[in-house]
Every structure is written in C-alpha cells, then in structure tokens.
Amino acid sequence: MTVFQITGALFAIVALFGVVNYRFIKLPDTLGITAVGLVICLALSALGFYYPRMAEVAGTIVPKVDFADIVFHGLLSLLLFAGALHVDLSRMRTQRRAVFMLATIGVLISIAAVGAGFFYVTRWLGHPVGLLWCLTFGAIISPTDPIAVLSVLKRAGASENLETKITGESLFNDGIAVVAFTTLVGLATGSSEFSTAAITIDLLREVAGALAFGIVLGFAASLLLRGIDSYPVEILITLALATGGYSLAEALHVSAPLAVVITGLVIGNHGALTSMSEKTREHLFNFWELLDELLNLVLFGLIGLEIIALSLQLHIVWLGLASIPVVLLARGISVAIPLLALQNFRRLNRHSALVLTWGGLRGGISIALALSLPTFHGREMLVGVTYLVVVFSLLIQATTLGPLIRRLNR
C-alpha cells in the first residue's frame, strides 16, 4: 500500500470507531475511539490464536517495521506535546508539591514496586525474566495518560485540586519514566555500566538541561507566534516545535521527552494567552486533540500487529492478568507514600488516594515504550503484558472512574 492509501484507511478507521463510540458506547471521544480500537485489536489477536495463518502474515510484516524509530523519532514527541498543551499551569502551581512528589518519587517507587512484583510473578508462573528487564517493565507501565484521564474527570465532576494532581502528575511522569526507561534498557543490554554516581549525574544533566532547553524554546516560539495571526501557520510552528525541538534536544544530549513537555506547557499557557487570538487557540487545541487520538490509534494498531504475530499465547495472557493487581498495588503505594509525606504523616485522605490509584490510566506512552524495546529473550512477553494492562486500564478503570468519583462525592 502507498502512504496515501494507508492514510486514507487510517482516517476511515478512526471515523468508524468514532461513530461506534458515539452511538453505542458514549465515552469521551478520545477515550472511546481508543477503547474501540483496543477491542478490535484484541479480537484480531484472539483470531490469530485460532487461525495461525494470520500470525504468519503478521510475522512477515513485523520485522520490516522499525518500531523504535517510529516511536522515539516520530510518535512520542507529538504525543507528549499534545498532552502538555492542554494543562493549565496556573492551577498546577497550587498543587506543585504534590505534582512534583508524585511525578518523581512516586514514579521511582512505582518502577521499583512493579519491577519487584513482576519479577516474582514471572517466576511463579514459570516464565522468569531478569530483574533489570522487570524494572524496565516498571518504567514502561508507570507513566499515566493525561488526555484519557482528563476527559473522564471533567465529566465526573472531580474537585479542581484532585483533577490538577492527576493531570499534572500524568504529564510530568512521562518524561521521568522515559529517562528511567532508557537508563534501565542501557543497563539491561550492557551498553552502559552500573554506577550510582554516573547514573545520578546523567539523570540530573538530562533533566536540568531539558528544563532549561524547553523553557528557552517555548518562550522563543511564543515571541515568534506573537507577530503572526494565521492559525494554519501557527499550527505548523507548533508541529515544528514538537518534532524539531525533540530532535535538537537529542542532539544536545538532554531528555528530549521532558524538553517537549516543558515546551508544550509554555506554549499552551504563556503562548496561548499572549501570542494567539481566540480563534487560533480554538483551532490549535482542537487540532492537537484530534492528532492525539490518531496517534494513539496508530500505536494500538502497531502493538496489535505484534500481538497477532505472537498469536496471543496463553502464558502471556496469564502473566498479563497476574500483573494487573501488581500494577494497581504498586500504584497505590506510589501514591500513598508521597501524599503521606506531604501531609506530615497526618491521616491520609482515603478518597484522594483511591481516586489517584484507580485514575492512573495507562495509554499511548506505555505502548510506545513497549514497542521500542530492543530484541531480547522475553521481549514479546513484555509487549503482550503491557498491552493487556493498558486494555484493562482503558476498558475497566476508565469506564468505572466516573461512577467511582460520583459515588465518593455523595
């Protein structure tokens, strides 16, 4: 198929999923389209189990696709920018301590807890995976999806403070988790040696450099946008920021994902208020929301192709089901410890902890990281388990989060 044919097929599929969601499922558009896509991929995966010919065809296609290049040098920059663009920074300042603790200490706790739990689960089910790869899985599954959870929270009438905590954490933990992911993959593959001092210095350099670079790039782009009143041109500028800024950050050896997040925050707040007309803001935000939906569908399609090639083997299904409570428990621990620390060990608000735990939805970023894993013994298993955990997150957690919040409010 040509690029034009692939693009046309993609738009037709997205439109169909949108119609199905609007008429029958009635979830928020972003979440509904993703959920329908997940169900279709899951159905195709199940068919691949009963019709090995499908797995053979997918197996001939998968080796021809450079998932790591597509994800890290294409989709990831756009997904992160889209998520950052929709966050209200003024509201986040009121919860900055909670957001910071959840997105840093909380992510590290989650990575360690998921990694340790998954390490024992794989041994218990007779498919052991090395500890470093289990910790890598923890880094894959720890970031949460800001777009999916925000749409649910707005419908459910969650408090502003709770909404800010969840969306702010979801945004920043992407960058932290990606840095942890690349570090752990380097250690697991042997391309880098373990040294606490060296790892700490590298992390600080990447994070601090990304913060400075993202701020400078964001404000420079805001000045450029100020002299332009054409939303097509301004949309193109933001596309250049997301993709070109990501590539430049990589060249400067700072965290490209975090740099894109910071740039998106600056453009979505300072740039949108000082450099854009109301019409431009509306078109720009609608464009990036639609692009986020399309990119998530592409990601789920890519991982669906991999799962079909695997024929969704039974041991992967069992590992995925066993990993779901591990991930939820780790999420609960990673939420409770920072919140307790912030409250000086006073009584923890159980409702906030519960909603933050159940509202930690996994989405496109986790799938992007899973697809970019290098080849090793157990890679297919990690990809499959990631897929199943994300399926549970978006089909079960997302659909029940709204009723949970409304019940707690009563």
From TrEMBL:
Transmembrane segments: 6-24, 31-50, 70-87, 99-121, 127-150, 171-191, 203-224, 231-249, 255-273, 294-312, 318-341, 353-373, 385-405
Biological process according to GO: regulation of intracellular pH; sodium ion import across plasma membrane
Keywords, sorted A to Z: Antiport, Cell membrane, Ion transport, Membrane, Sodium, Sodium transport, Transmembrane, Transmembrane helix, Transport
Occurrences of domain Cation/H+ exchanger transmembrane (ranges): 14-406
Annotated GO MF terms: potassium:proton antiporter activity; sodium:proton antiporter activity
Subcellular location: Cell membrane
Principal location: membrane
Pfam families from the UniProt entry: Na_H_Exchanger
Membrane topology: Multi-pass membrane protein
GO cellular component, one term: plasma membrane
Gene3D superfamilies: 6.10.140.1330
Entries under PANTHER family matching the protein: NA(+)_H(+) ANTIPORTER NHAS2, SODIUM/HYDROGEN EXCHANGER
Family classification: Belongs to the monovalent cation:proton antiporter 1 (CPA1) transporter (TC 2.A.36) family.
Name of the protein this chain belongs to: Sodium/proton antiporter, CPA1 family
Organism listed in the record: Paraburkholderia fungorum
